[in-house]
Amino acid sequence: MTDYRPLHHIVPAKGWINDPNGFIHFKGQYHLYCQHNPKDVVWGPMHWLHFQSKDLIHWEEKGIALKPDQPCDLELGDFSGSAIEKDGRMYIIYTSAIDGRQTQSIAVSEDGHHFTKFEGNPVIDEKTLPSGYMIADFRDPKVFLKDGTYYVMCASRHEDGHSSILLFSSLDLFSYQFVSVLKDFHNCEKRGMIECPDILFDGDRCALIYSLQNPKQEGDKFQNRFAVAYQIGKLDLENGRFVPEGEEHELDHGFSCYATQTISENGKHYIVYWEASWGNNHPMAKEGYAGQLSLIKEVRFEGDRLTMHFLPGTDKKHLDVQLVEDVARLKINNIELIFDKPSNKITLTRKDMDEAIVDDDGNVVDERHFYLSDVQQIKIDYSYDHSCVELSFNDGEVFCSLLNFKKDAGHDAKIAASGCVVQ
User: Fold this and answer.
1) What architecture (CATH level 2) is domain 15-310?
2) H-run or E-run covering 289
3) Which of 201, 252, 336, 346 could disulfide-link 257, Cβ–Cβ 3.0 to 4.6 Å?
4) What are 128-179's pLDDT values in tens digits?
5) Is residue 236 flagged as an active site residue?
């Protein structure tokens, strides 16, 4: 057993992974792919690495399903994308990337592992891109079907610096037309943009989910340089607009959540994301791999918010915490939670790691702050899986994902508390 490799999270046998891609239930199996560099433990020419599961809990690595081999992707590779079933086949739409040009391409599969790329790729390029949007930053297609029409959302940057989610439509998955600018974003700094647009439908409502590079920090909101946010609203396809019905919220208040993929089936919604971040070191790389995906979780609509919940069968533990003082502390190994009852504020730290996580500016990344509606009595469900830790507070009101590089922590957690009663 290595020091850091988790037992229950999706990790590659070797090499680098980042964004999850193409999450789908197809022919009785769940299929999930991720961005992958098979030759090194750093980002490189992107392939799609395939994982397969029957229950969303236990996953098996199945090898590389997509590799850069067309003129439009030979230089940088096959970037992120999504999947859909049509006439008993799986279709994936993904970004083909060469230096200075990102376009959207199609591949088809009978079994979810062997793919044939469309000879006419790319299917969405600068001819379809609206005026002012840059082909150099145009990626991460999310495909969905509504009323007999296929729609694709893509992230793109405008030449004036802001970014947008653009909407395209097709009747056959191969021929596309531009529909509209679905939503504009002006809250990214340092040439950041939104990435990986995602959408969940719940009756006549939807959740528009997106990842943010360098979001503007607002108090304790957006403490991470790479974050996932969402808004609940309605999708007006007639006018090509997303109509928000609530505020923008962060999906996860820990350190490690980016680039979601979601699916819905039998009235339930499921989510997975890259449980890591750009712009910092990756201590697990010395073990021959770098990057991991989160546990699959159920997503529920609760008013104008989403909550995330561990699936039945997940290896997790539960704590009931009752505060007896205004300020209390709870430690799970070296991870500390400081509860402030007057303000309902929680401070999360991961100090005393054997190997610190340090950002590109030399800052140690070890503290975050968030709020609960009430910290008097708190229910905590958590998964402690070697270097991967996920915590749920009060039935998913707040969720925190983080990496914690502590060699002697292993798979079991030691609990210590002061100012509170823990059961």
Assistant:
1) 5 Propeller (2.115)
2) strand 289-290
3) 252
4) 999 999 999 999 999 999 999 999 999 999 999 999 999 999 999 999 999 9
5) no
